[in-house]
User: Fold this.
Amino acid sequence: MNVEQIVGEFTDAWKEGRYPSVADYLARTRPEDRDEVAQLIDEWLLIAPDPDYDEAVLAKLRAHPAVVAALAAGAEQDEPVAKRVRSLREQAGFAVAALAERLSTHFAITDRARTTAYLERLEAGELDERRLSQRLLGALADVFAVDPGRLAPAPASAHAWFRAAEDADLSTIEAEMQALSAAAMTPAPGAGSGDEMDELDRLFTGGPEG
Amino acid sequence: MRRTWDELMPHALPRIQGFIGANAWRFHLSDDERNEALSLALHKYSLKMIWSFETSSAGEWTAALRALSVFACKDIVRKGKKNSDRHATLTAEREDGSVELTAEATAIVIRDQQAQAAESDDEEDDRRLYADGRELLGWALPQLTDARRAVIELELDGLDTAAITERLGISRDAVYQNRCRALKDLGRLRKQWEQRR
Assistant:
């Protein structure tokens, strides 16, 4: 088949909602034509209308392993960091004290009891997750052998405030406004107290750069 | 907001897979790497795009999905290059004592070329990221020949090939030919459009 027929059949299959695979069509293409077919399909997909998928195809799309995994990752990101830390720690089979020991070794901290206490407060949700340092979250991800993204705090969706009112989740916006307002009114830990923050304080309360 | 994005993901999957399939060929990704790129693109959709995508036009949405897919392919190229460099045995000694480059060294050269292609495309893809498809089509379509424009406009209206052949009184092969030529024209015009912006 020539380039025009291959691209024509792909676009037909797309419009009919048959969920065509580019790899399959490229495999059927003569090697010398594959660059051109790939380029034309790429161009087509930029303008192609959304097909009406039937329920069988939609079920297949929803059950695709990459979709299931990405949706799970998204749902996990919406959980508080405290809950994620606890869950990953339990999955990794660590007691809090054992995790504290690993972190203390990693950051050369001698006071393991304080590290344990900080971890317990973190898991209890007593610490502001926006004040956790990137270094701490990175080290925890290393210990749990997971991608650091799995411990990243969910970003504040500021742009949602500017969306049309019918799209906006007002309760979420109100909660975020209150959280931001409270954060703005709360002095940074150690500020004005005359106490110097040590390494452990910086890790757990010093903010992303701490 | 999360729920809406989650519901959209299965509908976006074929397009993301399509972009990755086309660009995986361009970047010489293996089947496993293509699957890895898909997984990476969907994770970026779920963890980052949901917070950063701020516009509402279908054209921008489609362009953003393409950018997401191309970036994922490039990330896999970079990762593959890093791994192959780290573990490679670059030279082997022949029986006569002379030294030759190994197949791994050759693979690194190919990876280097792919990585360079990925880097040089970064700027182009950045420009494409938020190009508005509708606005572009409004500018580009009048520049196509009447036959090519007619086919693409009927495509965009959702007509299948049989209906287009009937409406225009031309053969299926002629529809395919005009569609392909129109796509080539649109690719060329898109580049001109992006340079103007």
